[in-house]
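Exercise 7b. Backbone tokens:
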């Protein structure tokens, strides 16, 4: 089990258990605990992003992570100023990264907004929706991991993410749909009209999670690095682990915003 295509399964599973335990406690507590966890994840992702773009400037990575560590909690406390604070963060980081200004600004904005979205989802819609989103991302990743290694087959986007297969991608969608139907029917007892919309919604969020992963893969290939860092055994960095969560969180936040505006 320690060699070949399953060589990372042991450390990957051990790290996953720890992350699930920490995340479950934060989700249960909500409030400040969940906001602090989201802040930590966002700050570490920004630190990794700057380190990838400027690998020989560790001090700059720490400084820019420190800036976000101040601005992100302010955005949580004062959501009316969130866009303004986001523009400051993206502008400062992009202005200090030379030839990759656009990439850093765009990805910083995505990380910042997705983190805020996760906090707002937990705050406004309760632990149930937040837990469902986490479960959807996890099952997308797990189903894709095993199906991709067992079934193999054509690559989903070989130029960007050479390990991701169509079999793993579709398996992630199926897992997300099954989980969402279980939640909709047996947990919330939704009427059938709502349940029908669960299927395309689950696929869309699963795809958003996968696209978050692919977006990070594109950055890593551009910067010629294997992992965003080595903070998490078996997973690489925080960005390697939470890129899918950020993609799905951002998509769900935007979806809820559209529904709210249409209501």
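Sequence design result:
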């Amino acid at each position: 089990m320690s060699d070949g295509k399953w060589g990372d399964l042991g450390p990957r599973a051990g790290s996953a258990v720890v992350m699930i335990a920490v995340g479950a406690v934060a989700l249960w507590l909500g409030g400040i605990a969940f906001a602090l966890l989201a802040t930590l994840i966002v700050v570490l992702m920004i630190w990794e992003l700057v380190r990838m773009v400027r690998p020989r400037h560790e001090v700059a990575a720490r400084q820019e992570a420190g800036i976000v560590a101040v601005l992100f909690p302010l955005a949580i406390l004062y959501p009316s100023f969130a866009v303004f604070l986001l523009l400051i963060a993206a502008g400062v980081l992009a202005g200090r990264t030379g030839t990759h200004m656009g990439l850093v600004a765009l990805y910083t904005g995505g990380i910042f907004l997705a983190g805020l979205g996760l906090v707002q989802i937990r705050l406004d819609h309760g632990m149930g929706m937040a837990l469902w989103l986490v479960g959807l991302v996890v099952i997308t990743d797990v189903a894709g991991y095993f199906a991709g290694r067992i079934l193999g087959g054509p690559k989903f986007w070989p130029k960007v993410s050479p390990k991701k297969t169509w079999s793993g991608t579709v398996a992630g969608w199926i897992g997300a749909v099954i989980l969402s139907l279980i939640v909709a029917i047996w947990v919330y007892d939704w009427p059938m009209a709502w349940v029908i919309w669960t299927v395309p919604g689950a696929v869309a969020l699963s795809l958003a999670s996968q696209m978050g992963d692919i977006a990070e893969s594109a950055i890593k290939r551009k910067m010629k690095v294997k992992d965003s860092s080595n903070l998490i055994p078996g997973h690489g960095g925080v960005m390697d682990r939470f890129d899918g969560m950020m993609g799905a969180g951002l998509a769900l936040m935007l979806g809820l915003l559209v529904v709210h505006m249409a209501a």
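Instructor comment: The chain has one domain: 4-262. The beta strands are 155-157, 161-165.
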